[in-house]
Request: fold
Amino acid sequence: MARVVVISDPHLSPTHGFFWDNWCRACDVVNRLAPDAVIVSGDLCINGPESDAEVAFAAKALRRLKPQVYAIPGNHDVGDEPPGQEPDQIIDGRRVKRWLSVFGADRFALPAGNWRVLGINAQLLGSGLPQEKEQDDWLDAELAASSSPILLALHKPLFLQSPDEAEITATSINLEPRTRLLRRLRQAPVKVVVSGHLHCQRDVVHEGVRYLWAPSTAFLVPPQEGAEANLGILAIDLGEAGVRVERIAVPGLVSYDLLELKGHGRYAYLRDMPPCPPPA
Reply:
C-alpha cells in the first residue's frame, strides 16, 4: 500500500498573502500524515504567468513539506491553454521556461507500491506548442511501458459531466485535446485521474476510471454540479485490492469568500488584489 496526498490550488504569493496561513496549516497536516509522496496539482501561484517572484516564492513554499513533492503547473502558474480565461495569459514558451527554470520539470512519473503515478502539464493540452508534442511522446512511452495500474494527475479535469461535451470552456480540457488524451488513456491501465482547478470535491466513475476532483486549500467558489464545496486535501491509498480516497479536513482552514476578497467587483481579477504580505 502506498499513500499519495494531493494538495491543490493553494494560490501563493509573496505580496498577496490571504491564503498563506491555510497553506501552512495544510503543510503541517501533510507532514504528520507522512505520505509516500505529495502531488501539488497546480495553481501554486496567483499571478505566476507574469511574475518570476511568484513562481520562485511558490517553489520556496514547497520546502515546508517534508515528504517527496511533485508539482505540476496550472493556469495561474504558466497561463491557460487557448482560448483561456484571459487573452493576455495564454501559455507560451517563455512561461513554460520560467516554470522549468524554478521547478525543473512540469511532469513526473513515480512508482507507488504496485501502482504507477504520472503527472502532466494540463495547460499544454491543445496549446500547439512544441512542448505539447514532447509531453505527448513522453506520456505515450510511459503508458506503453506500464503493466501496473496508473493514476494520472493534472491540473484541469478532463470534463465536467461527460467526455462528449463540446462547449469551449476554461473549466476543463476542451473536446479536441480531451479526445486525443482519452484515446491514449483507454489503451493503458489508467484506473484513476485526479485533478484540481475547480476548488470543489467530486468522486465519480466513468467507463471504469475513477475521476477525483481535489479541493483547494485557499478559497471556495460555487461548486460544479455533483461536486461538494469544501476545503482540504486528498489522501489516496493505492493498493493491490484497490483505491481508498479520503478528504482530510485541515483544522483552522479559513473558507475565504472570493467575492468578498475581490471587493465585489472592485478588483477585476485575483491578481489585482491589494497587497497582503504573509508573515515571515
In short: The first strand starts at residue 2 and ends at 7. The chain has a mean pLDDT of 94. The chain is about 25% helix and 20% strand.
